[in-house]
């Protein structure tokens, strides 16, 4: 059973639409940039769902502080979402595998307001 899910909401602070993807433990795995419309936000979620099973969608990086993170990148090189930072490459790879195995069919839930 897939217990992961996407949340999306409109920020009362800036009026932008955002989404995140959460694991079965409710911890945030991915977050998005702000979108000007609900339609564009939902379109980006659908794009993440569509490409999530493919390893080529993941751009793995190491930050200046040696923390690891990844970005989900569309075929046109647009960054759709990025991860939290991780203390090791192995932990990052585990999170990528969670997304690969579950995001395609994860439910999309609307939230009235949430802080990114």
Description:
The longest helix is centred in the middle third of the chain and has 14 residues, at 38-51. The protein has helices spanning 38-51, 89-102, and strands spanning 5-10, 17-22, 28-31, 58-62, 68-73, 79-83, 108-110. Strands 4-5-6-3-2-1-7 form a seven-stranded mixed beta sheet, with helices on one face. It has two helices and seven strands; from the N terminus they run βββαβββαβ. The chain has one domain (5-110): PH-domain like (Roll), CATH 2.30.29. It starts with a strand and ends in a 6-residue tail after the last strand. 24% of the residues lie in helices and 30% in strands.
Low-confidence stretches: none
Q: Mean pLDDT, nearest integer?
A: 94
How many helices?
A: 2
Number of domains: 1
At CATH level 2, the architecture is Roll
Query: What is the count of β-strands?
Result: 7
CATH class: Mainly Beta
Strand content: 25-35%
Query: What is the helical fraction, as a range of percent?
Result: 10-25%
Morphology call: globular
Radius of gyration: 13 Å
* Cα end-to-end separation: 26 Å
Biggest sheet overview: 7 strands, mixed
CATH topology, anyone?
Answer: PH-domain like
Which H/E pattern describes the elements?
EEEHEEEHE
Structural class determined from secondary elements: alpha+beta
Strand order of the largest sheet: 4-5-6-3-2-1-7
State the gist of this model.
With 116 residues, the chain is an alpha+beta fold.
């Amino acid at each position: 059973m897939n217990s992961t899910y996407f949340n999306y909401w409109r920020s009362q602070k800036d009026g932008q639409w955002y989404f995140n993807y959460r694991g079965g433990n409710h911890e945030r795995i991915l977050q998005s940039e702000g979108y000007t419309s609900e339609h564009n936000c939902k379109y980006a979620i659908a794009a993440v769902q569509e490409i999530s099973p493919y390893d080529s969608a993941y751009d793995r990086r190491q930050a200046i502080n040696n923390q690891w993170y990844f970005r989900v990148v569309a075929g046109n090189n647009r960054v759709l979402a990025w991860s939290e930072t991780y203390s090791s490459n192995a932990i990052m790879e585990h999170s990528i595998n969670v997304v690969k195995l579950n995001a395609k069919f994860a439910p999309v839930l609307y939230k009235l307001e949430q802080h990114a």
